[in-house]
Amino acid sequence: MNLNDADLYSPFIKGFIFLMTVEHSKNTGDNPDFSTMQNMDSSRLQRILALTPVVTYTCRPDGNYRATFVSENIRTILGYESSEFIADSGFWPSKIHPDDRVRVFENLPELYQTGNSVHEYRFLHKDGTYRWMRDELKLLKDQDGKPLEIVGSLLDISDRKALEDNLRDSQNHLLEAQKIAHLGSWNWDILSDEILWSAEVYRIFGVDSQTFSPAYKSFLDFVHPEDRECVDEAVQRAIKERSPYTIDHRIVRPDGSIRHVHEQGRVTYHQDGKPVSMVGTVLDITDRQRAEAIIQGRLDSLTRPEADTVGLSFEDLFDLDQIQKIQDAFAKATGVAALITDTNGRPITKPSNFCRLCRDIIRKTEKGLTNCMHSDAALGRGTLDGPIIQPCLSGGLWDGGASIMVGDKHIANWLIGQVRNEQQDDEKMMAYAREIGANEEAFRAALAEVNVMSQEKFSQICQALFLMAKQMSTLAYQNAQQARAIHGRDKIEEALRENDRIKSEFVKTVAHEFRTPLTAIKGFSELLLSNNQLSQEEQEQSLRYIYERSFFLSDMVADMLDIARIESGAALSLKKSLCSVTEIFRQIEPFLKAQTSHHRLDVTLAAENTLLNVDQAKIGQVLENLLSNAVKFSPADSLIQIKGAIIEKSYQISVADQGIGMTPEQMEKVFDKFYRADASDTAVSGIGLGMSIVRNIVEAHGGSIWVESELDRGTTVNFTISLDYGNGK
């Protein structure tokens, strides 16, 4: 007896096959050389099989498949008695689900070819429900290879099938959800450089999952060349710093189209700290970015000043998809053709219900199309009293039109028509066909198809159109006003938030700037009060430092008072007098020497005896502030230049350094109150009011001030004082 491939079966089936071999040997006199067979307890094995979760059976191998043995556990598994199987040769096939029966019998020949066969099918339980069963069959043969018996097992796999179905449904739902959301998932095995993409990722990147195998390099090849470096840096940073990976970038598909994507991911690590894999998602945000660009364009248009309506378009104010639906419905309900154009007659919407005469014949000729556009423009002449009704300038059919306005701005025309009435002259129409070079026979046939409508009815429809267009004009104006109101509210809120931020930063800066000199003053004061052993020189040094720091605090308080007066709207108080340029610089000479002790100073003043009508102290304050900044922001021993010259009708003074310079963004804000380019604790001291006060002083004198700077190349501040003395003191 042949037991080849018995290892394919469970131990229960192996035992059952062995039992069948023993029983067959008893009946036939065969005596296979199995040493364990001599001690086999057949009844005990039968009892064991009855307790297993597998129904074991034997049946005839002659194509009848009548059962010759069925284990007793059939009762608990499928609800039947074993005798029911054995008594009726048609019992087994009759209980297989009709949708599975043909497939099972088509695959049975495999059993006779290979000696083994496995089937999964639904089988009718005695309670009337179908259960999924796994049926494993083994063909037993004699020494000559002749089939003796089929041994099989039935295992209830309904729970497994349910799980598979649920998993399959979940996967399908996930795939569908990813497709709807344009969101794909990926898993990158960093060690092997293999990447698993979901179906949606392949769709986003525009490649076939059957022919493309993703890897990190091939992924980078998809990234737009201008974005590739920053994407790679973001990936490497996420791996190195154990931080989330998140970035927006562009990809270039194989067809050359560009998509915008948002990627997120996280890295997992082995217990030894080495990166193992990176999982994440990719979201196609192309449509969102386009929509945001459109919305921003509309917002930019709508938030212009009310008087500025140049460039304001119909598309800025209305959703074209919704307008198209309204236009289509109106045309269908009234039987007229409809179209919305700009003020030059160019279409904004798609034509609705256009007749074949206009669509396929007149507008297909060069002259006919030109005349149509002229007629469309004439129908929307921006009238507010009612609709315009007249024969078309191109074909002679009756048309009507109404204007759509935003305030007094004419932005579009809603046109209807392409109807005939009792006043129509067909011969004139045919003459027009010859004039534009249209085929007369086709023209006449298409003319006969045009909708016929009385003049009175068409006028009523045009009046309804006018009322709709008037309502749209009101809505357009309200949309524009609402957008401006929302934009204005947002700008106020943004300004308030920025103001709060500036105030908080200012308080922090002032506290820091006051704390340092106050701490020093307190320390030296305590030293003087508590130590009588200080020498005269040490006492003088301490007092000098206290004096200098108190002046520093006094200057800051003065700056804050100045800016407070300016903010309150009070005019800057000036005590003007005629003084020479030399006199102005002489008053700040001690300051110049003290400030530039560690820098090289070059002062070149052309026409230094020129008289200026200024507040000498205030202009001195300007010069001291500019020079102080030049010293603070330039390295020791570098050159600081002060130049003066007459430029046209003003005296221009420039203070130039070779310091750190400024970016264009910093230059734009340098005169803002409380602005400091570097607000960190290690930044150069100051509370950010000096340059704002300087500008106010210069402008109060009728002058102007500006900055020229380049990062790491130094800064030059220029200001002018008018030479016109007519302003008095």
Give the gist of this structure:
With 729 residues, the protein is α+β, with helices and mostly antiparallel strands. The protein has 25 helices and 21 strands.
Describe this entry's structure for a reader.
By secondary structure, this protein is an alpha+beta fold. 47% of the residues lie in helices and 21% in strands. It is built from 25 helices and 21 strands. Strands 2-1-5-4-3 form a 5-stranded antiparallel beta sheet, with helices on both faces. Strands 7-6-10-9-8 form a 5-stranded antiparallel beta sheet, sandwiched between helices. A 5-stranded mixed beta sheet has the order 16-18-19-21-20. The model is unreliable at 1-11, 26-40, 306-310 and 678-685 (pLDDT under 50).
